[in-house]
Amino acid sequence: xxxxxxxMVCEACPAHHAGNLTRLGIQMASWDYVVALAGNPxxxxxxxxxxxxxxxxxxxNWPGKTVTRAEGGFAYGGYRYKLVDLPGTYSLLSASxxxxxxxxxxxxxxxxxxxxxxxxxxxxRNLNLVLQVLEITDRAVVCLNLMDEAKRHGLxxxxxxxxxxxxVPVVPAAARQGEGVALLIQTINAVANGQVxxxxxxxxxxxxxxxxxxxxxxxxxxxxxxxxxxxxxxxLRLLEGDQRIIEAVRxxxxxxxxxxxxxxxxxPMREVL
Length: 273
What we know:
Elements lengths: L2 H10 L9 E4 L4 E2 L1 E7 L5 H9 L4 E4 L6 E9 L2 E7 L11 H12 L4 E7 L3 H14 L3 E6 L1 H6 L6 H8 L3 E3 L8 H12 L15 H17 L6 H9 L3 H9 L1 H11 L6 E2 L2
Parallel strand pairs: 3-6, 3-7, 7-8, 8-9
Antiparallel strand pairs: 1-5, 2-10, 4-5, 5-6
Helix pairs in contact: 8-9
């Protein structure tokens, strides 16, 4: 989609005329909340990003990685939101730089809201990433994108039942046409401000031996790295032999990542990285 088409779509978006949304683009000196945008490749994630922030964005590379980082911002309901577009990935199991970046940002960067953009025509394939994100964070919104394509293929998705099963808000959308974007903004705002409390579905049917091992590892991790977010998830990755996590524990980098994220949350208005 070229620039002219994207501009027309954004101007057609109901949120654009709602009066409450200001697309800040790269004009972000400070912000109240950080929103991470995650999703599989080819789910329309970039279109959602542009609908929220405008066509202007700050791009660069993630520290130490040749992977593009895109950031922008928007203001809504009296709050300023910084939006970080994570690399498109099918998993958070750290088999590639993209997966490692997305996982580390959600886990250690502790965004106030993580929006997971999924392709409603390939929902089963996309739910793998959704469930992995929900293992890491309690504050998530699923953007059920490409609903127009689903209807064209005769597919019906029960977004209310999906929200109930996942334990987080699910917003149907067709971002190219601007459909659902206004509701997505409202939902992000509600989750960020605590008006909506997420209770994400998590797998809890673990064998007794695994539960004991996880409990022991969690105790050791919390002792070595006080305040570590979601120590249970880190323990599970250690037991599964995740070399990146193992190296971070051995080198102490895990503590550095955690301290860095805590330092970034000391004030409600955080300065630009």
